[in-house]
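Appendix B. Raw example, untouched.
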Amino acid sequence: MKICLSKYIIFAFCAILFAEDDSKFIERVINETDKQYKKVFDFQVEMQININVPGFRMPKKKFKVFFKQPDKIKFNTKGFGVLPKTGLFTSPLDNFDNLRELEIVTNENIDPNNVIISGKLITDSLKVKMPNEYARLTFIPTVDVKIDTKKWVIRKVTTKIDTLKIMEISNMYDQVDSDYYLPKESNVKYYVKDAKLSKWLNKDISSAIGSNMKPQSNDMVEGNIKILYNKYKVNRGIPDRIFKNFPDKDL
């Protein structure tokens, strides 16, 4: 009995040590990724968005975006709402503040230069409303964030409810001005099989991609939004007057 108790105490002690190591490693990964993100004080970029979502019709659209830390954003286009949260306009630190119970996900197929941090989404932190109170309390999404620990950028963000994948954002990067890693392409995929969630997500997408757009159908199963970035101008000192009379966008 004493031997079994001793083994249990040793096992529990080791588990605590590993948990502390994971916690410190997660903190380091988030801080390094945030540090890389904040190297860019401001930028200007040309963006092209292509929407392939059942029920929505929209031609390819090009526009110019100005961004300045921490949250100043301006589009040079009208009739266009906010974009999906690809990570270009929100710091990693702010994004991870919306997650709890962070842990490392082990995956034998993952590149050794990548790490996946998983956490449960704090639904009260969402600016998008859940379909109803029952959904808010019952459906607690899990978010898996894949981070490239060589470039310290976010490669992929996957949102799931239980094992059901709801949304996945993938980013491809280019090195700009020899020092900054910025997205050259983002792909946002939606996977919905539940009718109620489909109606809710359609409402969310219509608010995200254009205030004047309305879904033609509530039966979306899978959709894709592709964003291309081109002609970056980084840390050129964008004056504050550029952003005046333009409300901040939640990207």
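End of appendix B.
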